[in-house]
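Whiteboard transcription, Tuesday session. T.W. wrote the structure tokens on the left side:
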């Protein structure tokens, strides 16, 4: 009896042959790694599973998804094609094939597969996602792009003629409207329209920009300004630089009379140096002055503009050298200048900036009336706020308001060019 009980207890606690935990298959381990985002390790298991069972559609599907995530789109396509051979109506696989063709740049093939999936009347999230892909393909096929800004503002200027600090120069009492500072209210509009044509090789484009600026004075209409500018030329853009070259033409009217025209060439090179951008540029310009032929001139400008962005903070500087060779040397000058500006994003829709700048001009010949060679130094202080008032759903159109204060302090060895002025500007800008 005791022996019988011992045998019975032994049999009760003896493990059954099928009760031991089986090790997960290569496919199961690969799937776990895939779902955790470890695509490199997952691919090793899927490769082993594929060698053991190359006709398994599930293995091929996940092998394709893993290859896609690793950027191996050709391998992903081969895996998906094997699934389609076994199931020609596999809608999900066609969607993945379309994504592969899109990444490889075969847009027509991608569109074909996306439309095949749409024809099956898929669930709403799927067809909405496909519509986004098709819209992105259409956008990528665009060759012509038009952007721009329209700005309207009002300015309060306390010295519109840049009248001297003193109305007595060399013991002579100045007379006339420019003798003492006069304030005025100025209404201005600015339109900037850009057109970009993108070539087949998308690193090359052609950019044309039209600019129009008008300033109308409430009282001093003799200062009304109408400016028209046009620039056009090629742009070469890669991951390492952007190089923009263009021919420029400008026309300025003052009080409806022709004042000045110019024709020139400009170049600008931008180099990314994370977290900075380095901008270099130059311009050569021939100026034709209609009111005084002695002011006709050739103008040269070189500049460097580094920009540093750290979070919501942006610090930029601009250093430039300008030379104007005028017909009469008394109007020609050598000029250097710099500006330092700090921008800060205060919130999602409000930003602020402050800047300081200096410009020093040394003229090339003595003034025949004052018998000295003119030398000026102008200090420029600015501060402002900008607020985003409205933005379209696609963020392509915006409406913003700006408030800017500008103070100028000019010191000259000829007293008539020593002046102070303050300008307050309130404007609104529509971007598109």
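and on the right, the sequence the group agreed on:
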């Amino acid at each position: 009896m005791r022996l019988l009980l011992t045998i019975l207890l032994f049999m009760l606690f003896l493990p059954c042959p099928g009760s031991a935990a089986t090790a997960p298959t290569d496919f199961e381990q690969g799937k776990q790694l895939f779902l955790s985002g470890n695509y490199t390790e997952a691919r090793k298991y899927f490769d082993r599973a594929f060698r053991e069972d190359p006709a398994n559609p599930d293995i091929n599907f996940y092998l394709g998804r893993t290859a896609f995530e690793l950027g191996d789109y050709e391998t992903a396509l081969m895996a998906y094609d094997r699934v389609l051979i076994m199931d020609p109506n596999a809608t999900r696989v066609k969607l993945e094939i379309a994504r592969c063709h899109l990444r490889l740049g075969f847009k027509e093939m991608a569109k074909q597969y996306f439309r095949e999936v749409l024809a099956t009347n898929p669930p709403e999230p799927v067809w909405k996602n496909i519509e986004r892909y098709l819209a992105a393909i259409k956008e990528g096929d665009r060759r012509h792009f038009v952007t721009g800004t329209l700005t309207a503002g009002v300015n309060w200027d306390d010295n519109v003629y840049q009248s001297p600090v003193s109305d007595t120069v060399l013991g002579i009492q100045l007379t006339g409207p420019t003798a003492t500072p006069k304030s005025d209210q100025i209404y201005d509009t600015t339109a900037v329209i850009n057109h970009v044509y993108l070539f087949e090789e998308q690193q090359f484009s052609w950019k044309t920009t039209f600019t129009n600026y008008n300033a109308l004075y409430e009282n001093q209409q003799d200062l009304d300004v109408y400016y028209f500018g046009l620039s056009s030329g090629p742009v070469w853009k890669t991951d390492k630089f952007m190089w923009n070259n263009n021919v420029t033409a400008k026309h300025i009217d003052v009080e409806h009379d022709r004042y000045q025209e110019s024709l020139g060439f400009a170049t600008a090179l931008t180099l990314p140096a994370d977290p900075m951008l380095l901008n270099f540029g130059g311009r050569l310009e021939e100026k034709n002055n209609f009111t005084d032929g002695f002011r006709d001139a050739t103008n040269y400008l070189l500049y460097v503009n580094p920009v540093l962005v750290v979070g919501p903070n942006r610090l930029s500087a601009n250093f430039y050298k300008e030379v104007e060779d005028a017909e009469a040397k008394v109007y020609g000058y050598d000029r250097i200048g710099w500006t330092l500006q700090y921008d800060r994003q205060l919130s999602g829709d409000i930003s602020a900036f402050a800047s300081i700048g200096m410009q020093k001009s040394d003229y090339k010949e003595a003034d025949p009336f004052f018998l000295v060679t003119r030398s000026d130094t102008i200090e420029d202080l600015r501060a402002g706020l900008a607020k985003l008032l409205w933005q379209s759903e696609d963020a392509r159109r915006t409406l913003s308001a700006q408030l800017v204060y500008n103070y100028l302090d000019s010191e000259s060895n000829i007293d008539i060019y020593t002046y102070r002025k303050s300008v307050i500007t309130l404007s609104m800008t529509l971007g598109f």
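Someone added at the bottom: The helical segments are 2-13, 26-35, 39-52, 57-69, 73-86, 91-104, 107-118, 124-140.
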